[in-house]
Every structure is written in C-alpha cells, then in structure tokens.
Specification:
With 67 residues, the protein is mainly alpha-helical. It is 43% helix and 0% strand. The chain has a domain at 7-51. The protein is built from two helices and no strands. The longest helix is centred in the C-terminal third of the chain and has 23 residues, at 37-59.
Amino acid sequence: MNTQSPCKKQCKLNENRECVSCGRDIDSIANWSRMSDEEKDRANTAASVRLATNQTARNEGHCHETR
C-alpha cells in the first residue's frame, strides 16, 4: 500500500502550526517521507478531523488564519 499525501500544494499554517489547506500538522508534514503507511493513514485521519473542526470554527467565526 502507498498512502497518498493530502497535500494540495497550497501550504499555509495557522497559529497551531497546522496547514489550513490539507489539515496536517507541522510534524506530519516534516516527517511524511519517513512515516509508515499506518502512520500516514493516522495522520490523514487526524488531518480530516482538523479540517472539519476548523471549517466549523470558521463558520462560527471562532477561527483566524495566519497570513
């Protein structure tokens, strides 16, 4: 299995050092090439949750992106 990166080539980190485009945190971005497929799957799941949570926060006016 070869787990695909969720990277959209539009990196922009928020104040929590998470990419607002793909949802990965800085550690999973930096370590992606050294991670096992299982670790990548966990990182992708966490990224999806982050994106959904951040979208909800933006919709409610509670999230500010870093420029």
